[in-house]
Amino acid sequence: MESIPAPPLCVACNGTVTPANLLQETLLSLLRTGSWKILLAPFWLLQGRAVFKSKLAEASQLNLDVLPINEDVLTMARAARQQGRRVVLVTGSDSSLAVKLSERLQVFDEVLASDPTRNLTGAAKASVLCERFGKHGYDFAGSSLRDFSVWENARKAILVTRSEQLISKVRTVTEIDHVIRTTKLRLADYVRMLRIHQWLKNMLVFVPALAAHRVTDPTVFFSACVSFLAFGLCASSVYVLNDLLDLESDRQHPRKHKRPLAAARIPISQGLLIAPVLLLASLLIAGSLPFPFLAVLAGYFAVTLSYSLFLKRQVIVDVMLLAGLYTIRVIGGAAATHIKPSFWLLAFSIFIFLSLALVKRYAELDLSLRKNKTGGRLAGRGYVVEDLPVLLALGVASGFVAVLIIALYINNPDLLVTYPAPEWLWLIPGLLLYWVSRLWMKTHRGEMHDDPVVFTARDWQSLTVVSLSAACLLLASGWPG
User: 9-180 is classed in which CATH architecture?
Assistant: First the structure.
């Protein structure tokens, strides 16, 4: 007696095989390349969603090789194939993308997808599967309520979700074989996407008030706090936009591929909504401060946007812009509090932040070399491995110039007006020399986080240097006398 063959396993793509949405990915890819064809998108949509998907897939340059994959689903599909079952990729995405993804994964026997004449979603997907395998003649793995009619006609269901509501609803129409529970989307994912830890950089808006010894003035302190919030929201807006534009290169990065947008934990559609909302909130808050601050903030956004779009791929220009963005925060704090920044403060800021920007780029390039072992070019940037010695030399030199500026400032005779005991200040250049030298030593050894601000905030020796420098400033000011 011949055994009855097991029914085929049909697997959805978006949210199942991959946590990403291929339609959103192709649209963003077209936006990222800056192609004029994006202007045709509304006209494609008027011709129907099937044509829209096909035209987007044809016009975009989506790299499916770096698309995040749900390994649990892939393991299930491989197991089914080993049992002799036919495994079918069934998706509403365009067939050209579905076939490329299937070729990458090497686990599907057949691909059923949308084409210019048919949008394979919902009832249309259920109809095709019933025609192909018969009603209740297939098992279906999916993650969306849009596929409810597919489950109605399936023998068994496999759910890729955490939604108890979806599980309960599907259970009313078919037997649930098992549930692959996805990782819960947490508040921490949004905090990470907004990079709240990077708001530490915005503390630079307090520097002009601290340097002028006016931070205890309630009006000055309040204005500095408001500018801190405005810069934070603006920066987070740009971080989200930058992550959207950098999806492909982030997915190839040893650490950045875990970012919520790159890992498709947070949908692209949410990122596109959150970015402008944060920017609008930032501008509304900035409206309560003097107009020069609003102008500085607008300049900061314009420079950051230019950096994200194309200037980050320009060698040396990118690190100079990063250094400039740090310095702009200092200028913004000065504009918000009506305090004119000194020459010494701006000169020190430019060189110390250029050194930090070079640390960031060196660390990224060095990490790429250590991971790939073959050299080459840093993804999304203009640097090659051979640039490492030059970056090292430029970074160390910039850091030491910053220390020299501090030494020249301390030697200024006018300093006695502000600091009655300036001899204490001479300890600061020594502390900075140690910190800059150690920073670059760790960077050269490959022990540096690719964001030096994060490293400094977590490194006890860096925090000790900051604390001792602050103590020297207090003692030079005559404290506790």
Answer: 3-Layer(aba) Sandwich (3.40)
